[in-house]
């Protein structure tokens, strides 16, 4: 009997020790807004959008302490449309993020579906709207598709040293017989010290299609994005700036791939750049957000555009907030840029958002 009691106590202590070294959390965002879009060829559109400020999601993340400064980690995250209760990408599960990895004193290596270093720089350093709302950078910057996140990806994240940190990402194209077709490479170097944050990010995606039975090979070359972004906290306001250069096929795909304004369909630029200036400032108990952006298309089409946006976020608590935002795009020479939000590409050249966001 005594032995059984001792054995039970040992097992209980072991279980307690294991649980103390392992942590799993459920997290997410619930976001919905009334969105009014104007200026599209199809006419006005009024709708409820699930995720105008931040795409709604539910996720699971965990870590396990392996000892000697090493830990295992994972993240599984799926997107949800609050307006319909469906997945935000049909026939997928954990489409937003799905990776596992190891963290050591020398850095972290993760494998799976992950954000690109270029998108992280745009969302975390360059844009006061964090790529959401009607006034965010998605209106003119090529923040869609494989520029945002990639599958079959290996990411190395360096530890912060004297304010410097960085990321390297490699996405396998997984096309038999050709190791370069479809692959994507990205990197970012970051510096943060006090009120200043600066980041230089690069993205290179190969658009070739390898030969296969029944498949004709295609040679399109690579699309490249290079961005320098910074923000500085003056306390009375936080200033943001970014300059991005796009070169090559599929470097700057149009967010709205249709013909939103009628006439001759717009052409995605193969050579151009974008500039963003922005700010966030405390006003009352909330925060004002604002952006000014310009798209310079250097091709013969010269399809330039300008955009501006303004918003206000009013916190109800640490996790809940109300928000409103307005964005406007001025297209030139048949350009087809629309006012986006975090979850939809938009149908017109102006849009208004009024919503609520809750994190958990």
Give an overview in words:
- With 360 residues, the chain is mostly beta strands.
- The protein has a single domain, classed as Beta Barrel (Porin).
- The chain has a 16-stranded antiparallel barrel with strand order 1-3-4-6-7-8-9-10-11-12-13-14-15-16-17-18.
- The protein is globular.
- The N and C termini lie far apart (47 Å).
- It is a multi-pass membrane protein.
- Homotrimer.
- This is Porin.
* Regions with little confidence, pLDDT below 50 for 5+ residues: 1-20
Q: Percent of residues in beta strands?
A: over 45%
Could you give the order of the helices and strands? HEEEEEEEHEEEEEEEEEEE
Give the spatial strand order of the biggest sheet. Answer: 1-3-4-6-7-8-9-10-11-12-13-14-15-16-17-18
For CATH, the homologous superfamily is named as Porin
Keywords: Cell outer membrane, Ion transport, Membrane, Porin, Signal, Transmembrane, Transmembrane beta strand, Transport
Organism: Massilia suwonensis
Membrane topology: Multi-pass membrane protein
Domain Porin: 8-333
Write the layout of secondary structure elements.
Elements: H1 2-21, E1 22-38, E2 45-49, E3 57-67, E4 70-81, E5 86-87, E6 97-104, E7 107-115, H2 117-126, E8 149-161, E9 164-171, E10 184-193, E11 196-206, E12 222-233, E13 238-247, E14 271-283, E15 286-297, E16 305-315, E17 320-331, E18 350-359
Antiparallel strand pairs: 1-2, 1-3, 1-18, 3-4, 4-5, 4-6, 6-7, 7-8, 8-9, 9-10, 10-11, 11-12, 12-13, 13-14, 14-15, 15-16, 16-17, 17-18
């Amino acid at each position: 009997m005594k032995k059984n009691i001792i054995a039970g106590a040992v097992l209980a202590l072991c279980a307690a020790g294991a649980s103390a070294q392992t942590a799993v959390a459920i997290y997410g965002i619930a976001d919905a807004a009334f969105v009014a879009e104007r200026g599209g060829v199809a006419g006005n559109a009024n709708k409820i959008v699930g995720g105008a400020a931040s795409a709604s999601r539910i996720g699971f993340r965990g870590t396990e302490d392996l000892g000697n400064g090493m830990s295992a980690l994972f993240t599984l995250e799926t997107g949800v449309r609050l307006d319909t209760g469906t997945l935000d990408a049909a026939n997928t599960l954990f489409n937003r993020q799905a990776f596992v990895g190891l963290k050591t004193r020398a850095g972290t290596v993760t494998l799976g579906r992950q954000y690109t270093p270029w998108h992280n720089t745009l969302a975390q350093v360059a844009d006061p709207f964090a790529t959401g709302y009607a006034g965010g950078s998605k209106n003119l910057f090529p923040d869609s598709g494989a520029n945002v996140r990639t599958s079959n990806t290996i990411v190395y994240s360096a530890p912060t040293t004297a304010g410097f940190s960085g990321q390297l990402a490699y996405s396998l194209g997984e096309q038999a017989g050709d190791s370069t077709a479809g692959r994507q490479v990205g990197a970012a170097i970051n510096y943060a010290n006090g009120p200043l944050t600066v980041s230089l990010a690069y993205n290179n995606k190969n658009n070739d299609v390898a030969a296969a039975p029944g498949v004709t090979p295609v040679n399109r070359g690579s699309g490249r994005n290079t961005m320098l972004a910074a923000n500085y906290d003056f306390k009375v306001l936080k200033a943001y700036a970014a300059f991005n250069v796009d070169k090559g096929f599929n470097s700057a795909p149009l967010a709205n791939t249709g013909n939103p304004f009628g006439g001759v369909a717009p052409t995605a630029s193969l050579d151009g750049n974008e500039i963003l200036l922005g700010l966030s400032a405390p006003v009352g108990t909330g925060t004002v957000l604002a952006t000014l952006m310009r798209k310079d298309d250097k091709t013969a089409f010269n399809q330039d555009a300008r955009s501006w946006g303004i918003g206000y976020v009013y916190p109800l608590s640490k996790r809940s907030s109300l928000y409103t935002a307005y964005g406007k795009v001025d297209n030139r020479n048949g350009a087809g840029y629309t006012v986006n939000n975090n979850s939809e590409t938009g149908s017109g050249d102006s849009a208004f958002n009024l919503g609520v966001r809750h994190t958990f």
